[in-house]
Amino acid sequence: MATKEEQALQDALINTYTYNLHFLSEYDYALYERVSALSDAISNNIYQERYFLDFIKENGEFDIFDTKTNSYIYNKNPKKWNNQAIKSCNFDHNNTFSLLNTDIYTTDITDITEFKTDMLELNNLKIRTDIKNYTNIKFEPLNNKHKKVRSINKFIFVGTLLGRHIPKIIKKLNTINHFVCEENLEIFRLSLFVCDYSLLARDGKSVVFAIMEDENIFMEKFNIFFKNYIFDNTFYKYYSTNYNISNYFDRIINVIAAKDPMIFDYRLLLDNMIKLSTKNFNKYKTLTFGKIKEDNSFTKYPILYLGAGPSLKSNIKWLQKNQDRFIIVAMAATLKILSANDIIPDIVTSVDPQEGIVTKQFSFSTSQQLDEMIKIVSLNTPDKVFDMFNNKNNLFTFESLKTFQQNSISIDGVSIGEITLKLLLHLKAKEIYFLGIDLALDQKTGQTHADEEKNKDLKIDISKDENYNDIMLKNNFKLKDDIVITKGNFLETVKTTRLFFISLLDYNESIKLFKKSSQTIYNLSENGAAIYGTIPTKIDDIQLSSKLNKKDIQDRLNNELNASSIVHLVEEDKQLIKNQIIQIDDLINFISEFKKFKIKQYEQFHKELDNISNIMLSFNSNHFHIAEIYLNFALIINRYIDFIFNSRELKDNRKELKEIHYIWCQHIIILLKEYKNYLSLLV
Predict the structure, then answer these.
(1) Which of 144, 306, 323, 387 registers the highest number of CB atoms within 10 A of its CB?
(2) pTM of the shown model
(3) Rounded to 5 degrees, what are φ and ψ at 64?
């Protein structure tokens, strides 16, 4: 029979567990259902527990007993463990994930006119020059782990164990937004008996749980955490239990890399996408997706969608033999290997803003071949690429990120791969086969693409495997060179790069959002990554159709795309743009007035920026770029401003603040005026 003390302890455990379940039922119902299902399975002897909660009397704390190893996870000294966890979490940059790219904020740029380079590099240099305006006023090293900060907004608990340390860390650091991940649902369930998780979501706080989730769901959950007060993503403080958490660091770094604002910065958005799109709109046919018919040639015939991954090369003979059994849609990056093997795609797609790369890709096809292919390219394609196409009748453009048409949609993505997939889905393609969409390295050679030449730049050394300690010791992370492990299409796991992994996330999201139940996607890559919503299929298992009359089908495709395109905006669309120009003028006047404010403290400036950010983001629509321009600007510039002023050592900063306030306002006004000028080209 239990003593009064034991009974009181048991009652307290049950009460905490019940309260946590009630909290989860309202805050994260899916997690609540999973925990409840596990509890039912344990109660009904369907599931045999591995871990048990044990009270260590001499320690006055709870431990976890592991029946598999016959040991205690806290080594029967949980109080010492918890105290060390709390002691190690302080107002500094130790144990943090930084979202500021060290290289971007430290490069010394003196005169941008001296650089003669391609458009992407030029934009990158412009961004660095913009940043230098702020670093010249106040520069602070980004890698100072011992910098004392005033506040910590976002905190990640990597592993929970019993979670007894979590409420005390939150109280000590007064954190606001939290991310809690745990690889074992059984361990997390035990923590519900002894840790009040509702504390993470009281008084304006928030928490996102990622408990024993697969890779895709984990990324979705982390994205929610990222968007919780999106402007406070300068750094994430974390505490790790170091128990069964080896996959988490790589996952977190992957999603942080995917959120890097320098992947597509505000200068690239303005100087390339918007500038060229407005200039080209009245020159070339632009697809209007609201006109696409439900029953068209894309719905009637199988589509073989070709990417430049290693599996394209390994299956090139099969493709040669069966090219007439599919409508072949190919990225421009595949034209070299296709041309070398006498394969001419029916449709070729391109979106790369780098003039030199795109012209080289199309140069592998003869003028006659280019004339025969249907070309679907982004509206912001460089002029020299358009000049390569003699036959403009089968040339079509599409709008990226935003659309100037009210009866259409825009197509965007990390790369041409996801963009082409979205094009096919919106064109109602019913049966799509992926070949060369590997999103992974050649698992033997480390080759990234199906290039005919053995180019060293296209190979990655796959002989080394990094554990999470190695990953955390690195000062920076490389999108193209760092190796990431992900689930394979046929293999259990495959090695890929961070850049491919970012594309993989976009493929997964695109299929989840846009694929209809009537559309089927088959993934033919034997050594590629698993892609959400696709069916792994051996190439020999395809039920091949009869040979198609390609000339007849191409004529029909061309006619259908012509019928779904426009060259000039209708008056209603022009009026919408005129209204936007008026709104931009209002914003310019608003920022000009803000420039006159007398700012004395950073807290005041930060509050005003919050108000301005809310106004800018309110212009989020399918036809207006203001929100995207400002958000990217804020993630590059505002975050650095927040970094330098979030310091306990910073004393009197009025002079620096005044200068930054002035430059910031000038910066925004210049961007708004540029945007206004480009929009004016359409009306």
Answers:
(1) 306
(2) 0.89
(3) -115, 125
